[in-house]
Amino acid sequence: MRGRWTNLILHTSASIYKRKNNVAVSYASRSIFDVFAVIFLELFLAVISFPLYLVSKGDSAKGKSQYKIRRIFTLSFLIVILIVWLAKLILMVGLPLYFDSRHFTVTTENKATSQAAAQSYLLPEVYNTQLDASISIPTVEKISAEKSGGLMVSGLGKAGSKIVVNIGKTQNETASEFNNIKIYIVNADKSGNWTLETDVKVFNLKPGQYWLQAMAYDEITGKKSDVSSTQYFEITQNLYDRIISRADIYLNYFMIAFVALGIFSIIILI
Amino acid sequence: MIKKIMVIEDEQILLRALNVELLSQGFEVLSAKDGETGLRLIREEEPELVLLDLILPKLHGFEVLKALKSDEKTKDIPVIILSNLGQDSDIKKAEELGAAGYFVKASTDLSELSNKINKILT
Predict the structure, then answer these.
(1) pLDDT tens digits, one per residue of A101-145
(2) pLDDT value of position B111
(3) Among B8, B4, B109, B15, which Cα is nearest to A55's?
């Protein structure tokens, strides 16, 4: 095992020497390839030779050598990567366990909803059915965020009916622009309670303003209720959410800068 | 009696790796990072064998070999070359200067090197 390890170090060192010589004599893309090959091999050698630093050597180097600087730099780079990714893991996993990921505000506006405008977003099979005023309009009791990024909506409607829920994102504060409409159908139970839980993959809650409408559809009679009033809700990010959502970006930028610095340092030492 | 081996190698990582390998085989290891220091230590310590790189700072490996073989005190110390240079001309020159063996780093297995060292020292 030790023999294979020391052989690997020997051969990697030899490969680095060969590639460095190639950089001096090769052209264009070949030269660039050799540079990156040297960088990769240096990093690899730094990793596999790390245990050697734990072995006390007879003669200690006096003064600085470019190899010592390069090895220390590449090792430091690897350690920083590990620390950064560990910090990221802690932020991504730990914080959501303790803090709510989404802050909600819900406002309800009893706007006179245009029947035609609202129906244009309903399913065709429901759209073509007759309106029945005796079917109670569903009410929305609660809108809340799931920590996974999905949405939970619950309310009351006609027992045993299907509740059709439209959810969309508004660009403005009024519901004059409808885009990215999502249509959900859930069943109201014997007591008329219904709950909608959206899949995070389908409806990932990003900060912004949303609107919601619901209507009931009775499969037995084949008739529908009127559309509920439009409810508006807003998703905002709290401080921890901003940290978590941006931590990945900030840390990646930091690592890019660090890698660039490392590559620059290694190149000037070749 | 523990046999002394002098390793002259400017690549620090490789020097450490060779030290680990030779120490594990029961040798006492002396090391130097350049030709001049290596030559001086060889004259002072008189090791049983020298493992010599060719591309060295301050004094080239061939110059070290030449100096060793022209010194009465050190001419009988076997010298094994361990180098990145693998041209036939380099191997031939090393043989002409009296090297006991020549190993190219890229294609050498350290077990072969160990076998050669043990063969020379027994």
Answers:
(1) 555 555 555 444 444 444 445 566 666 788 888 889 999 888 887
(2) 87
(3) B15
A167, A203 Cβ separation under 8 angstroms? yes
Which stretch of A91-105, B19-33, B66-80 has the lowest confidence by average pLDDT? A91-105
Interface of A with B in 28-87 (CB under 8 A): 45, 49, 52-53, 55, 57-59, 61, 65, 67-68, 71
Structural domains in chain B?
Answer: 4-12+26-57+65-110 (3.40.50.2300)
Query: What's the pLDDT at A115?
Result: 44
- The mean of the pLDDT values for chain B is 91
- Shortest distance between the Cα of A84 and any Cα of chain B, in A, equals 27
Q: Measured between alpha carbons, how far is A17 from A8 in angstroms, rounded to an integer? A: 14
Whole-angstrom Cα distance, residue A235 to residue A150?
11
| Domains detected in chain A | 2-54+65-96+246-269 (no CATH), 103-237 (2.60.40.10)
Residues 6+ away with beta carbon under 8 Å from A63: none
Q: Which of A7, A14, A61 sits opposite B84 (nearest CB)?
A: A14
